[in-house]
Amino acid sequence: MAEAITAAATTSLSIKPSTRHYQLFPLLHFFPNSSIELSQKPKLSATGSRYLHFVKYHGLGNDFILVDNRDSSEPKITPEQAAKLCDRNFGIGADGVIFALPGINGTDYTMRIFNSDGSEPEMCGNGIQEDGKVKVDMGEPVLKAIDVPTKLAANKNDAVVKSELVVDGVTWNVTCVSMGNPHCVTFGIKGGQVDALNLAEIGPKFEHHEVFPARTNTEFVQVYSPSHLKMRVWERGAGATLACGTGACATVVAAVLEGHAERNCTVDLPGGPLEIEWREEDNHVYMTGPAEMVFYGSVPL
């Protein structure tokens, strides 16, 4: 991973439309060191089968299939094929597939991602540091309700902050934030502990709630201290995951807006901690966390 981090330090990046995660940013830099030529188009075997070369990365257990797609502006596989590759029983197993595409507007690369259900999220960010972790400038949070988007009525300037939302007969207080993709952050019901939540039951009800026209990611948060939060996440299009970078960023923004936390926080996720800073001077959110290669190979399509 050290080689990937070092190589990445000189690389500019653009993401069109893309994902949420710090795992993206060393993405291109395993390719030059790989023993297989990942920049080639999927090859045909002697029997005529197409093979796709890939590398698998994870950050805090949030894992992705990474594909060198720099020879084409269109992903090498379809959303349906991506969903099959993400299947943990019958495929490679991942939370999504990331494609490195040709650069535009002076950047070296652009990216797209398909979630494990084949849907395509949005996001942007860039940055690297030299301690084996990736630091990402996630940009400015979007708080205007119509832009998140949410149909909940704005109650603080144009934002939805600590607003009541009824989900399956239970009233939750929620704050809505977009980090390029929509998030609904809740600090729970009174006396609730995030570990006690049945995400598989409650998560889809938030994701598909009528007040979120583009669906939503949902973060369930517990406050340990003004600088230490714990979060579980239900991701739009991927379900319960071990980590979500934009979710951690949205959580800190929401925690500051609701008065629970300071602008610099450690956020504990099931896969491990992330360091999140919502910097006052530029209004950008910065995220620091690990990214590690798992393996590389090829798969028949």
TrEMBL record:
The keyword Ribosomal protein does not apply. Signal peptide: none annotated. It comes from the Eukaryota. SUPFAM superfamilies: Diaminopimelate epimerase-like (SSF54506). This is Diaminopimelate epimerase. The keyword Isomerase applies. Belongs to the diaminopimelate epimerase family. InterPro entries: DAP_epimerase_DapF (IPR001653). It comes from Salix suchowensis. Keywords: Isomerase.
